[in-house]
From TrEMBL:
GO terms for molecular function: peptide transmembrane transporter activity. Pfam families: SBP_bac_5. Transmembrane segments: none annotated. The keyword Plastid does not apply. PANTHER family: D,D-DIPEPTIDE-BINDING PERIPLASMIC PROTEIN DDPA-RELATED (PTHR30290:SF38), PERIPLASMIC BINDING COMPONENT OF ABC TRANSPORTER (PTHR30290). InterPro entries: Peptide/Ni-bd (IPR030678), SBP_5 (IPR039424), SBP_5_dom (IPR000914). Residues 1-22 form the signal peptide. This is Peptide ABC transporter substrate-binding protein. GO terms for biological process: peptide transport. One of its GO terms (cellular component) is outer membrane-bounded periplasmic space.
Length: 518
């Protein structure tokens, strides 16, 4: 039986997709939408927060984009080919592409972006970079990637948020994090940065020199920053806003909003990311360093309650580290059901002595705050002395990057293959201060490292599956992090906003194809 929210979305989606007639897009107009929370910055690759990805996906691009079936499509690369041995990939770049400052986009930008910028800053990209032996600009519009060995998911690695193309002429020889261009980002995308009135609005304007003729259709996008959840819902109800991206309004407001006239809703556009909510648990020190404590946390949490009540039936309770959309999931594992008695037994076994444990909620709105409160209650019921410490987004990033936490809510993207989106959380080689998106928990297991590294390049798939099944068994026992929910994210929008979601990356892929039927 569907919960009210799941049923409302199903009904709205059905209503919004009946009698669809191909229409001629219209140029002009501006979309008013909301970004929640305010992003800490807009430079993709340097920052991996979801709000950054959503806004900056209009400014920056990657070599490829992906369909809802995860099939690669041209973006800055118009074609590609691979050698017979699977080790050399050649990308042929579009000609006539310029950066927003008018400088040409060339193969040198690709080499710099991948081999310098992302190697230094981007833990997501490192999962791919570790398999790359060299990157060479063959000529102005041709780039050659040579792999140390064939790497199965290589071609689904080039989405803009993971392998952002950044301008070499702007960043080379500078302190990347302190570059003035970070305040006025320059990409190749369909929209250009115009203005950021902190705490109020981020304004993007049409890139008149965009390389795809006739695109974008819109004149601009206004990303409004409205801290209060109720006010965000009201802004849509009173007609001020056209689009509510995922996570913009609280789940308890969605059933009411989806019943409004001229309102459509879709859960499409997250196929590439497969968002996965987790509970970071610091493996380095304190009670959370004991796997019995971490197992107790898993048994103590009522994840079905979180899904059914806090998320109104959206999403799935994961079995372990691999979500149900991930390739090679081991579905033979015993689930961590809600079992407070088992949690108490494990705490007694380890000799837990009421030591305080600090829990950081994810500062993304009331739903996440309520979720932290529910988990806090679950843990207190089994005898864990847990306190919550609220932060803003910047503070949350800082605390996680400095490993200054005991437990913390987060969600990460699992992408289309375990070698891309899952291994980065558990590989010991991905432990590095300063980022909240790598192996933040500090988990180290030599066998897990071996299995992940071997599986990334194994062939055929049957061999990969055997390796990934073993790694899941180990992770299931060790519980380096808590596995909360595979998230369901609806996007709500006026039905006269057309072609809003046209890829497996959804609104994070930008509003290039969107137009207003007004």
């Amino acid at each position: 039986m569907k919960t009210p929210l799941a049923a409302a979305i199903a009904a709205a989606a059905m209503f919004g997709t009946t009698a669809v007639i191909a229409e001629e897009p219209k140029s002009g107009g501006t979309i008013d939408t909301i970004i929640q929370p305010e992003p800490p910055g807009l430079v993709l690759g340097m920052i991996q927060n979801a709000p950054t990805r959503t806004v900056a996906g209009n400014i920056y691009e990657g070599l490829l984009r992906y369909t809802t079936e995860l099939e690669p499509q041209p973006q800055l690369a118009e074609s590609w080919d691979v050698s017979d041995d699977g080790r050399t990939w050649t990308f042929h770049l579009r000609e006539g592409v310029t950066w927003h400052d008018g400088e040409p986009f060339t193969a040198e930008d690709v080499v710099f972006s991948a081999d310098v910028f992302h190697r230094e800053l981007n833990p997501s990209a490192r999962a791919v970079l570790q398999h790359i032996e060299s990157i060479e600009a063959v000529d102005e519009h041709t780039v050659e990637f040579t792999l140390s060995e064939p790497f199965g998911p290589f071609l689904i690695s080039f989405e803009a948020g993971t392998f952002t193309m950044v301008p070499k002429h702007i960043y080379e020889g500078t302190d990347f994090r302190d570059n003035e261009a970070n305040n006025h980002p320059i990409g190749t995308g369909p929209f250009k940065f115009d203005n950021w009135d902190r705490g109020t609005v981020i304004q993007l304007v049409k890139n008149e020199d965009y390389y795809e003729e006739g695109l974008p259709y819109l004149d601009g996008i206004n990303w409004h920053i409205i801290p209060d959840g109720a006010s965000r819902a009201v802004a849509y109800e009173n007609g001020t806003m056209d689009v509510l991206p995922y996570g913009t309004v609280e789940n308890f407001d969605i059933p009411r909003l989806t019943e409004m006239d001229n309102t459509c809703v879709t859960e499409a556009g997250h196929e590439y990311f497969s968002p996965f909510a987790m509970l970071w648990m610091n493996n380095r020190e304190g009670p959370t360093a004991d796997k019995r404590f971490r197992q107790a946390v898993m048994y103590a949490m009522d994840r079905e309650f979180a899904r059914d009540v806090l998320w109104n039936g959206l999403g799935n309770v994961p079995l372990s580290a691999f979500g149900s959309n991930a390739r090679f999931q081991n579905d033979d594992l015993e689930p961590y059901d809600h079992d407070p008695e088992r949690a108490r037994e494990l705490l007694d076994e380890m000799g837990y002595d009421d030591e305080e444990v600090r829990l950081l909620p994810l500062p993304y709105g009331e739903t996440w705050t309520r979720w932290a409160e529910a988990v806090q209650q679950n843990l207190r019921e089994v005898g864990i002395n847990v306190t919550t410490e609220a932060t803003d987004v910047g503070g949350w990033n800082q605390r996680l990057g400095d490993w200054d936490y005991d437990m913390a809510f987060t969600y990460l993207y699992q992408y289309g293959d375990p070698a891309l989106g899952i291994s980065r959380t558990y590989l010991s080689s991905n432990i590095e201060r300063g980022s909240p998106w790598n192996n933040v928990e500090g988990y180290e297991n030599e066998r897990v490292d071996e299995l992940f590294n071997e599986a990334a390049t194994a062939f055929p798939d049957e061999e990969r599956e055997a390796l990934y099944r073993e790694v899941q068994e180990i992770l299931h026992e060790d519980v380096p992090v808590g596995w909360l929910l595979e998230l369901g994210f609806p996007t709500i929008y006026r039905c006269d906003v057309k072609d809003l979601v046209t890829s497996g990356v959804g609104v994070n892929d930008g509003f290039k194809d969107a137009w207003l039927d007004r």
